[in-house]
Amino acid sequence: MSPVVVILLLLAGVSEAAGRVVPLAVRRPGVSRSHLISLLVTGGVVEAVVFGLWPLTAWALAGFVLASPPPGDGLLWTPGLVAPLVFTAVLAFPLLGPFLHLLLLVGVGVTLTGPFAGATGLGWWTAAAGLAVAGVGLGLAVEAVRRLVVWLSVPRRPEPVA
């Protein structure tokens, strides 16, 4: 990936993470700024990696559908393909609502479907389904890790003995 694409993916990731960190800052006003910044940076990098893996995961899924592996090394993000993703992430900040955010990500997936279908040789609908499965799978994996981290980070109080 080119440095421009990496920067755009990081911008999209930080914007996504900010949408998650801002409500935390509002609910817990005593949280230190350094802790919030570390959450924002860590979340931004994780989201950027997930965005970067989206077409590669779909490419791997296409290998299961096709009789022979797809030609080439995979569909990688280009500045033209990642620009709608950055726009979506910035527009969705700070959490305009899960339904709007889902619609915006579907729009990015539709934008990515044409180049993905051309690169893999799959039909448009099959490529769209592969991208959707990859996106949902990555989203669920990140959400599971996010919930696990929250669960592990909450201090446990022993139950009082009566």
Task: Please tag this protein with its features.
5 helices; mainly alpha; single chain; 162 residues
Topology (SSEs and partners):
Elements (H helix, E strand, L loop, with lengths): L2 H25 L5 H33 L13 H13 L6 H23 L3 H30 L9
Helix pairs in contact: 1-2, 1-3, 2-5, 3-4, 4-5
Order of helices and strands: HHHHH
Structural class: mainly alpha
User: What percent of residues are in strands?
Assistant: under 5%
Q: Give the termini distance in whole angstroms.
A: 61 Å
Helix content: over 70%
Round the Cα radius of gyration to an integer and report it.
Answer: 18 Å
Counting DSSP E segments of at least 2 residues, the number of strands comes to 0
Count every helix, treating DSSP H or I runs of 4 or more residues as helices: 5
In terms of quaternary structure, what is this?
Answer: single chain
Task: Outline the structure in words.
This protein is mainly alpha-helical. Helices cover 77% and strands 0% of the residues. The protein has five helices and no strands. The chain has helices at 3-27, 33-65, 79-91, 98-120, 124-153. Helix 1 runs parallel beside helix 3 (79-91), helix 3 (79-91) runs antiparallel to helix 4 and helix 4 packs across helix 5 (124-153). The radius of gyration is 18 Å and the shape is elongated.
Q: Nutshell version of this structure?
A:
The protein is mainly alpha-helical.
